[in-house]
Amino acid sequence: MLSTGFPKRMEDYMFKKKECVAMLLAGGQGSRLYALTEKTAKPAVAFGGKYRIIDFPLSNCINSGVDTVGVLTQYQPLVLNDYIGNGLPWDLDRAVGGVKILPPYQGKKGADWYKGTANAIYQNLQFIDMYSPDYVIILSGDHIYKMDYNKMLKAHKKMNADCTIAVIDVPIEEASRFGIMSVDEDNRIFKFAEKPKNPDSTKASMGIYIFSKECLFKYLIADAADPNSSNDFGKNIIPAMLANGEKMYAYSFNDYWKDVGTIDSLWEANMDLLGEDPALSLNDEAWRIYSRHSAHSPQYVGADASVVNSSITEGCDIYGTVRNSVLGAGVVVMPGAEVVDSVIMANCIIGEGARVSYAILDSDVKVGKGCTVGKSREDAKGIAVIGTGISVPDGTAVKDGAMIYDSADLVKEA
Question: N or C: which end of the chain has fewer CB within 10 A?
Fold first, then answer.
């Protein structure tokens, strides 16, 4: 067995052996979400009215029978840590296993921030080793999708693989945005290129990896000892394993998957919930997406209100018009107000006569009477975004494509 520097006897621990442990990377800054991640980590950003992005991988884990999950946090972790709590909403409040928050910590050699995705896992090898798993699944905390990881694990075991990477087919014109896999007729990976200028395959990495534990430890330890490494799975670990001839396979995923790392992609994913035949359905009781949300009274739609092709979460009071939009819990749309082609997060108030078009409003935003936020989607230069807790004074005009971090920006954008 590979030496990791950690005790190997299970008697040294009060932990039960697990076949598979999941490590969920949730420490990214999410800078391309701008105002939405100014005060919170990207995985804690609201989605679909009553969820947060991290609800999806956590729900996938418990639905797949993976009940031991380490959540690696770093940037603005307070909201995310509080949201996850003891893991009860996802049935991950286990005496053995369950969900554990894993921030960077003080060691013998001092404190060390996570330097990259591989380094984040490396710093938590001891957590993995406590459960003596045969397999480790690495997940990202910023994707929207429903996936059975157990099926991927079965494929990994069937091929006796060292590493299995989930892939999704993308249009060839978009392939240069992803890590691209080239595979043979058995789906064995023979080439990997990180964001290639001239891709020769359309199999894009989803950032979901299953490793046999001994192989993972071997490469992470070697990578940590390399002063020239970026300590990243895509840039370092995967290429090193390929160069050494390890058994690496692609696992094709053919359902809905969305990287919501940008304002546009987050808006698009919310819109994918709407319509008679939505691209992403969250009403499947066989594969529920669990969340931690406070109790609200039922939504109320007034006699003169109009709601068309929209998702309205509990606790909303609608007196105006809502079209093609997603509203979080506790949103109030006052008489004469219009919300169109927008994502409105929890507890926002849209004042009388205000119009919000092609916009994303973070939680607790108050839009005053007669305000305009954004323009119609057809005429707008981009999505207007207002950060959490901001009050927009009566009569203010927030331009299309504006990015409002605080109240001072309203003067600039008015």
Answer: N
